[in-house]
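Incident log entry.

Two folding requests arrived from the same account within the same minute. Monitoring flagged them as a possible duplicate submission, but the sequences differ. Recording both here for audit purposes.

Request one:
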Amino acid sequence: MEGLLTRCRALPAWATCSPQLSGYVPHRFHHRAPGRGKRLVLSRMFQPQNLREDQVLSLEGRSGELTCKSQRLMLQVGLIHPASSGCYHLLPYTVRAMEKLVRVIDQEMQAIGGQKVNMPSLSPAELWRATSRWDSMGKELLKLRDRHGKEYCLGPTHEEAITALIASQQTLSYKQLPLLLYQVTRKFRDEPRPRFGLLRGREFYMKDMYTFDSSPETARQTYSLVCDAYSSLLDRLGLQCVKVQADVGSIGGTMSHEFQLPVDIGEDRLAVCPSCGFSANMETLDLSQTNCPACQGPLTKTKGIEVGHTFYLGTKYSSIFSAQFTNVHGKPSLAEMGCYGLGVTRILAAVIEALATEDCIRWPGLLAPYQVCLISPKKGSKEEAAAELTGHLYDHITEAVPQLQGEVLLDDRTHLTIGNRLKDANKFGYPFVIIAGKRALDDPAQFEVWCQNTGEVVFLTREGVLELLSQVQVV
């Protein structure tokens, strides 16, 4: 037991519970039954399941589109459902995981001084024409006209909008800088060939931050600060990402880095030097280059999924829109800018791609839609007498471990065997699955506990279960 507790404490996915959120339990998510109190029960969850491979293939229309593990599993267990090419309905489990990810992002961004905003998805064409990106972005920019003939695009990014906002502030002082503004919103990109589910779609959620500094020196300090926050966030999720030098692309600027998760399905080709730690997207290197430019050691080639991207923009946008501040001498100066993106829905798919088995989803503890799944005995089985104990255990967990209120799910589908429900729970990836089986009838009752993220199975009394779960921390 002590060894299990130690290993659970050591898992990189456990993190500090938010005191503002841990005790809040929205009543609409709980289903009241006479004599049973408020319990979340699986039979009431909207969770369309397509657990057969042929059913999953038919969802996407063409079997060739199912080319990665995360896409297949997310469709199979009902995390997402196709709406149109490159667009997906995000279903309740996925929304819960995404809300948790956004809370982690908020914690990290606000810890470095970030302030949250929300900008319109519709962006006027004149802003994009001012930077020449209305034409240079090509067909990936989704364009439309309103009834008055005014042109807009559905923003894939918001450099123009945020810079115009800052330019409209005539009294910005150097004392207010650095200014770090960020949002988590839907973005749109007319991908020529959407694929890999949430990894490359036409509509997606992104965290984009924009920073404004008083000098190139302080702007580079801010750049390093945000990069460190990205590393901290990805470490908390247990993701072994690599920061690589990258091309500035259509966004521009003079310096850029990507945060890449090395996986075989990745579309980006990376070069990493084991000797000195140099790493780069192959786009920035000569394709024939085999030695590290920093130490001349051999480069190791791999593939990765880009989950984050940072840019030092300098005055590329502030000079166009006259985004100025009053400097220490009382004179107007152009703000030095940076922009920083995190693919929110892409991270959800990437963690499944990296952590899941071929058949079962595995979540970082911080992002798991529900932390605990309780499985009661099958109706009419020899163990049916333990059914009441399962309900009592549910109540004890939510009362004794307050951070797990709203995080415990009771699989009440008692027409199914324990084995069938365990198979489903394993596929969904709940970090802890607790079964009231034969040994629940012992004195004292022993519950079978499956710890999915450590691969261990133990039998614990009610007190042992509570002690184990008290170590779990959520956002």
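Request two (distinct sequence, not a duplicate):
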Amino acid sequence: MQANQKSLAPWVPVVGLEIHAQISSNSKLFSGSQVQFAAPPNSLVSFFDASLPGTLPVLNRRCVEAAVMTGLALNCSINKKSLFDRKHYFYADLPAGYQITQQRVPIAVNGSLSYSLCIDNKMSQMVTKTVRIKQIQLEQDSGKSLHDDTRSQTLVDLNRAGVGLMEVVMEPDMCCGEEAAAAVRELQLILQMLGSSQAVMAEGQLRVDANVSVHHPGEPYGVRAEVKNINSIRFLAKAVDYEIQRQIEELEKGGTILNETRAFDSKLGCTVPMRDKEGKQDYRFMPEPNLPPLILYDTKSLPANLNHQQVVNIDWIHERLPDLPSVKRAKLVERYGILPEHSFTLLNEDGLTEFFENVVKETQMKPKKVIGWILNDLLSYLKQHSLTVKESPVSSFLLADLLNLLEKKEISSTAAKQVLVELWKGEGKTPLEIVKEKKLELIQDQNELEQICQAVIDGQENEVMAIKAGNRKVLNKLIGLVQRETQGRSNPVLVKQLLEKKLSE
């Protein structure tokens, strides 16, 4: 009976993330080699990167500052003394046979990240959750192995070897793909606003490993599987949800979960085994003998005789932190009176906040109305055509010009949408030129409009009777018919007034 009850008990999924963010720096973590995406293979490799004997690491100050900045933004305690270690493993794209990391005492510990997600996919219902940050550590990236199956050979590109990474380790506080995706998206925005990482996932600047397990309530955590190197937020959500479901199904049919590394196959939409971890790899961690402890200072502990250019001051960095996404959203809501969910959309789309603010500056239309045009018309078109905000054929100035025509009642909203369709073509015409060319100006002659209203009333006897019998909703149909008759060139408010006046006569 107990076994049967156990199988009926719900499963509790547990998700923890390890995120590798490439530090935005001109040179690598321990060498002067340049960092550049898609450079010719092996063109950015110093003697140290290639691990030639006798070469020594020199720590890049910019990478340290970026890690401190990120730690502060994630509410971490910054360790004034952190240590570097060697993590040994053999792989073709790791020339030294070890990676320099921070296993014992990392640069930042015990932080937290708050993120928001929608309830039942409704943007108007959002809940805020928090995930604890265990630590942030500095480490080197490895090179890249390119497998050529046709020639049965592997080519090694060391351009990436030694590039500075921050590994952000999150505690297992999440329970589904949606939560994991929302947390990573928020982290990505924070990194981009700080400038500590460009965090472009398509260029491998943000890579996520997800640790997933399931257990029954009140029981210890289950055996976890790790899904490695997920390079898209959408794929992360899918990978985590698939892995949870796979583990539940496996356990319910009496199987066992292996402690293994898996990869997400985006084409098949499932995770596949890579290698098992049962025989736990011994990384033989040891202190890095060529690097002294990394000492950081705050204003209190900064010795008077030290050259300030030679040290990293935590307080100095803290004072210069920019607004984080949560603060920026609150300011947008306060300044423009927009809905909180709209502030999320503005920030989530790269460049959309600036676009919106530029339109608001240049138009007399209220921000609450501007946001409707930005989200419903501009953004939906860009998504439909897979364009970024920066690639939009309609600039913020053109949209502001169009909204000014609408606000001054020179055109109707129907006509404005027609003008927008023309603007998308990117032919270099202004909204006013399109309005004149297509004869979309509002009919200013009230007599002409009255005649059209009368003609519509005369042709809709049943509707007129329904309105006179008290069904006011039918009036909207008559307004629509007048709009059609005038090809969107009539002001609906004025049309409504004229129709009401004529129907009451």
